[in-house]
Amino acid sequence: MEKTQEHNDREPSESRTTPASPTCASSTSVKCAGSTSFHPPPKQSPWSEISPPPTYRPIRSPAINPPPNTNSQAIILAPVPQSQKVLAISLPHTFQSPSKKIHSPDDIRQFINSDSSKNFLGFIVSLSESTRSHKTSDSFHESTTVKKIVSIIETLIQWTEEIPPAQQSSRYGNISYRTWHNRLVENSESLMLQILPELLKSSMVEIVPYFTDSFGNSSRIDYGTGHETNFSAWLYCLARMGVIEEVDYQALVSRVFVNYIELMRKLQLVYNLEPAGSHGVWGLDDYHFLPYIFGSSQLINHKFMKPKSIHNEDILENFSNEYMYLSCIVFIKKVKKGLFAEHSPLLDDISGVPNWNKVNSGLLKMYRAEVLEKVPIMQHFLFGSLIQWYGFLFLFHD
After folding, report:
1. Tens of pLDDT, residues 350-377
2. What would the mean pLDDT of 252-271 be, rounded to a whole number?
3. SS3 annotation, 9-22
4. Cys-Cys crosslink for 140: which of 61, 116, 250, 368, Cβ 3.0 to 4.6 Å?
5. Whole-model pTM?
6. For residue 291, what is the domain's CATH number?
């Protein structure tokens, strides 16, 4: 009874709307669900294009009949997001404690059309482009700051060894995660001091909240794409302050983000984190989105590996350490049982896309529509001086 009430009381963190497959988003006509074993879902009452009803659906009870995707056509017709240079701040700068601003679809529209949103998404596209056609082990510039960030993540991984899961009757949401997260919060400022120069120490009031929100929610003991977006926002803030530079981008993906995903998988397995507002069987992934964007970029123009290669066990076994996309597929197959087309139909659909370039561009459009434009996710996002909220001033902003 307590578990049911806990689920009902949760704030949803992700949309239940079935996202449009990048297969459909490409200019080449490809059958969208040809390789799955599911029949098209029956017609139901349409949901809002901006945000679905706030009903939590745990991953153990996926929606076998998903709602119609009223946002699919908008995703297909949307332009592919483009890279942008991060807008650097000038010093001295007044930092501020960030706060939540998004509460409604109107707020989402204001944010998504603002310079803040476009520059942040442009940063993610730039990260994707930095790793285009590069294996994870390829050589790249690795600054002292990047090495320190990696060291911080390795410290967080070590904490999982020092804080074992508690013995409890409930299988999901191990309470020891709260101990791990409390240690994160208590040490967050000292961790930030490892990478911040003296002139920017006052920025901790603004960047620490993004950092501590990057690894899941300690109350709900869950994790999702909203937390992953916070980690990217933290990196973006460091870029705005000049702590990391454009020359660091490939290392941010191949070293920092790869280690971040390793940490999150460790937390998911050790403490059984719930998916934050799971899409159920109809989502791209229960927890992540960005490693598919970066991973598909890595595979662009590969001589022999195509999107359909995810079904080749030899390729997965031999190359998953070099390509993030393949690593994601291997992890899914490790934690989910049954036919891949049944537990991951959207990823199965994407494997029918003719090339990785179309996969990458489709995923970028899908990330904007299914993460950055969703109230249940972005209602938790924070705005300060580095990621600004324009409010009603947006109406007069060019």
Report:
1. 999 999 999 999 999 999 999 999 999 9
2. 97
3. HCCCCCCCCCCCCH
4. 250
5. 0.82
6. 1.20.120.1150
Query: Average pLDDT of 298-310?
Result: 97
Identity at 362, one-letter amino acid code: G
| Structure-block tokens of residue 170 | 């409930």
Q: What is the pLDDT of residue 53?
A: 37
- What's the farthest any 2 CA atoms get from each other in the chain? 59
CA distances from 398 to 101, 300, 386, 394 (A): 21, 35, 19, 8
Answer yes or no: is 317 within a domain.
yes
Hey, is 93 helix, strand or coil? coil
DSSP 136-156: TTS-----HHHHHHHHHHHHH
How many domains does one find in the chain?
1
> Of 286, 288, 298, which Cα lies nearest the Cα of 262?
288
Three-class DSSP category at 42: coil
288 inside domain? yes
The phi-psi region of residue 144 (left if phi > 0; otherwise alpha if psi is between -120 and 50; otherwise beta) is alpha
- CA dist., res. 389 & res. 108, Å (int): 11
Instruction: Identify the H or E element spanning 100.
Output: strand 99-100
Task: With respect to residue 21, please indicate whether it lies within any of the assigned structural domains.
Answer: no
Q: Which tokens in the block code for residue 19?
A: 């996202």
Q: Could you tell me if residue 237 is inside a domain?
A: yes
Return the pLDDT at 122: 98
Cα 280 from chain centroid (whole Å): 16
Name the residue among 241, 276, 197 with its Cα closest to residue 16.
Answer: 276
Q: Which domain range does residue 151 map to?
A: 100-391
Distances in whole angstroms, Cα of residue 45 to Cα of each of 19, 257, 282, 309: 17, 39, 18, 37
Q: Tens digits of per-residue pLDDT, 150-170?
A: 999 999 999 999 999 999 888
Q: How far apart are CA 245 and CA 382, in angstroms?
A: 23
d(Cα 373, Cα 379) in Å, to the nearest integer?
10
Rounded to a whole number, what is the distance in angstroms from the first to the last CA of the chain? Answer: 52
pLDDT of residue 281: 61
Cα 214 from chain centre: 10
The encoded tokens of residue 147 equal 């090495």
Report, in angstroms and rounded to the nearest whole number, the Rg of the chain calculated over CA atoms: 20
Closest CA to 233 of 372, 94, 398, 81: 372
